[in-house]
Amino acid sequence: MSYLRTFLPWIIFAVLPSGSWQWAALAALVVAVAVIAQQVRAGVGFDALIIELGSAVFFAALAVIAFADPHSGLHDYSAALSSGTLAVIAGGSLAIGKPFTMGIAKRTTPREVWGLKPFIRTNVVITAAWTVAFALTALVLAVVAHAGNAHSTPATLIQIAGFALPMIFTVRYVAHVQAKAAKVAP
């Protein structure tokens, strides 16, 4: 559920009609701000809201651009830019030593494991997988947009795969790490 909440603004933006991209960007911004506010009220620190904060900044900028010029050439590349932005946010979280998945994992993991090397390494691996998936998705969506198919069914399927594949990897990798730890534990 945490990943769904984290990526809800991006999902909203992806599923709303692309012809109304300014409204989709505004809706995504409103959802991003609402998610941040709800999480802060629940006691979640800003260090655990890396994607959410990046989402709010991205969708604020995109909404301004989209409302200023609804026919901007940027429209066709907005899906690629979305995935590219996520790749930069995720990669940036790795670069500063705060993998974005750590904040999500801490919500369901006992505090005593947060500083353990296996927990940190698991989150580095998972965040790296998300970063690669976002970067590849951005690249493929840019190629599709350049070919004139930015608002096609294949583009939508590429966006879905860009979230679904790293999500599946995350679930399977966590299960693998937990099973491996269970074998080692006394």
UniProtKB/TrEMBL annotation:
The chain crosses the membrane at residues 20-37, 49-68, 80-101, 122-145, 157-175. Keywords: Membrane, Transmembrane, Transmembrane helix. This is Uncharacterized protein. It comes from Streptomyces albiflavescens.
